[in-house]
Amino acid sequence: MDRLHLSPFDEDEEDQCIQLLSFCRKHRPSSHERLPFDEQIGHKACEHEDYIPPENPSGCARSEPYDFLRRRGRNGPGVPAASSKRLYVENQPHLLGGCSPHMPLWNKMSSTEPGGSKYSVDLQKLQISQLNPSGKILSVADKYNYMRDTFRKRLAFGKSGIHGFGVFTKLPHKAGDMIIEYTGELIRPPVADRREHLIYNSLVGAGTYMFRIDDERVIDATRAGSIAHLINHSCEPNCYSRVISVSGEDHIIIFAKRDIKQWEELTYDYRFFSIDERLVCYCGFPRCRGVVNDIEAEERVAKLYVPRSELKDWQGE
Ligand SMILES: C[S@@+](CC[C@H](N)C(=O)[O-])C[C@H]1O[C@@H](n2cnc3c(N)ncnc32)[C@H](O)[C@@H]1O
């Protein structure tokens, strides 16, 4: 209520209405310096009379791509700097596909690690829970929190044998383990389509990082999100994705489909759906279907459509 100001009105006037005036946080005077209403308006007008709004490069703020990081006041790479993201990735000294030059992680970490939450139990326990299904972590919410707190200790990204960069396990995982959450910006499919075709195809180049949850929601992990967006597709994957609900919120989780050894590359079946586009698959597994596309689903849908040329005009009876 203290942000709303009732403008005075003339009691004799018949057609009177009440105006509500609201100031944004930046321009709102603090409560002790709040002036009577009339003075406030005059004061604000004087304060901003020489204010010239910044010029928008495209001429229309609405046509600018949404800059997730800058909006939150951080200096992130943003879309035009996709190449710098690539450089950043390439310069990381990750060693993958071989033995780790580091000490086993469970020797290094303990529950007394600064910044640890109640789920940052020591890695000895992490080992037990990951390898022993009768471990103490029971509820989905507990598993979720545990997964979120430990994914950096369990996973790494690096050069993939399938395509570009991929995600690898630093530790063995058990079938059914929650591996990582696919996070990013939640957008609607039309926005995802526009971004994919008009922006990312030319800028990012290496493919897009969109995860379609359903017909109404897409997660765009191009500029925000965890390393889950680097997980490659395989026709014989060791993981699968599911949307789960934790405390009323939906999360896309990558689960282990089978036991996964240390340093294996994580993969799941993208079930890439496109009637007109074929994406050649490089997974190299014996049962590779040759394309990333979900052929069966596409065939099913294709059968539902009749080409326009085959439609006959209604002749009447
Ligand atoms: C989410 S990215 C995966 C990370 C990607 N490797 C990278 O370095 O950015 C998805 C893109 O990777 C490529 N990709 C992933 N798996 C593939 C596969 N099995 N065969 C061919 N290309 C694949 C496709 O270009 C796809 O659009």
From TrEMBL:
<dbReference type="GO" id="GO:0008168">
    <property type="term" value="F:methyltransferase activity"/>
</dbReference>
<protein>
    <submittedName>
        <fullName>Histone-lysine N-methyltransferase</fullName>
        <ecNumber>2.1.1.43</ecNumber>
    </submittedName>
</protein>
<dbReference type="GO" id="GO:0000785">
    <property type="term" value="C:chromatin"/>
</dbReference>
<dbReference type="InterPro" id="IPR050701">
    <property type="entry name" value="Histone_Mod_Regulator"/>
</dbReference>
<dbReference type="Pfam" id="PF00856">
    <property type="entry name" value="SET"/>
</dbReference>
<keyword id="KW-0949">S-adenosyl-L-methionine</keyword>
<dbReference type="GO" id="GO:0032259">
    <property type="term" value="P:methylation"/>
</dbReference>
<dbReference type="InterPro" id="IPR001214">
    <property type="entry name" value="SET_dom"/>
</dbReference>
<feature type="domain" description="SET">
    <location>
        <begin position="153"/>
        <end position="271"/>
    </location>
</feature>
<keyword id="KW-0489">Methyltransferase</keyword>
<feature type="domain" description="Post-SET">
    <location>
        <begin position="277"/>
        <end position="293"/>
    </location>
</feature>
<dbReference type="GO" id="GO:0006357">
    <property type="term" value="P:regulation of transcription by RNA polymerase II"/>
</dbReference>
<dbReference type="InterPro" id="IPR046341">
    <property type="entry name" value="SET_dom_sf"/>
</dbReference>
<keyword id="KW-0808">Transferase</keyword>
<dbReference type="InterPro" id="IPR003616">
    <property type="entry name" value="Post-SET_dom"/>
</dbReference>
